[in-house]
Amino acid sequence: MKLRPLIFLFLAAGAVLAPVLHASGAREVAWKSVEGCILKLEGRAVKTWNAYRAEKNNRLILVQLGRRYLILDTKERSVQEVAPSEVKLHGKDFVTSAGAERKLIPSSNWVTRDVGPAELIRVRLMDYGKVLEVQVPHPYNFRVSY
After folding, report:
1. What is the reported pTM?
2. pLDDT in tens, 31-55
3. Are 30 and 130 in contact (CB under 8 A)?
4. Is pLDDT at 120 greater than 50 in this prediction?
5. Which of 89, 98, 99, 105 would be a feasible disulfide site paired with 27, CB 3.0-4.6 Å?
6. Can you say whether the dihedral through the CA atoms of 19, 84, 39, 109 is positive or negative?
7. Mean pLDDT, rounded, for 76-82
8. What is the reported pLDDT for 73?
9. Which phi and psi (to 5°) does residue 103 adopt?
10. Is the dihedral of CA 60, 62, 63, 65 positive or negative?
11. How many whole angstroms separate alpha carbon 34 and alpha carbon 91?
12. What angle do CA 66, 140, 113 make, to 5 degrees?
C-alpha cells in the first residue's frame, strides 16, 4: 500500500518535468540539399539560390534566396521566413531548430502540380509582389512493389 503514493509522485513529477525537458532539448529539422531543382522568380533565373528538403517531411521545402530563407509548406500552403541566424550549416546541408521564430509571409495563387519527374510549386509572394516557381524532383523510392 505504501508503494502507490510513490508511484503517483513519480508520475506527477514526470508530467511536470516533461515539457521542461522537451523545451531544453529542442528538436532540430535537418534539411538535405535537392539536386536537379529549378527555381525562377517572376519567370527569370535567380543568381544565388538553393533548395533543401526536410529530411523527415517531404512537404517542407527550404528555399535560400540570397540571404533570405523561406520555408514552403505545400500541405498548409504557407510561406514562412526564417532568420539567417537560426539556420546552421551542417556539412553541405542545414539544420534549423523546430522552435525557431518564423515570420509568416503573405502568399496567394498557390499551384502544386506533378510535372513528370518533378513537383511544380508556384506561389505569389505578396511582400515581393512576384511569383516564385520551384520545380523539385520527386524523392527516390527504393522500395520495390511486386
Report:
1. 0.74
2. 998 888 999 999 898 889 999 999 8
3. no
4. yes
5. 98
6. positive
7. 93
8. 93
9. -100, 125
10. positive
11. 14
12. 65
Is residue 83 within 8 Å of 96, Cβ to Cβ?
no
Specify the residue for cell string 511536470: 16
Amino acid occupying residue 134: V
Question: How is 29-53 classified by DSSP, letter by letter?
Answer: EEEEEPTT-EEEETTEE-SSEEEEE
Q: What is the full DSSP assignment across 68-125?
A: EEEEEETTTTEEEEE-GGGEEEETTEEEEETT--EEEEPEEEEEEEE-SSEEEEEEEE
d(CA 12, CA 86): 34
Judge contact between 63 and 80, C-beta under 8 A.
no
Residue 35 is placed in which grid cell? 539536386
Residue type, 93: D
Tell which residue, 123, 142, 145, has the closest CA to residue 134. 123
Cα 85–chain centre separation: 16
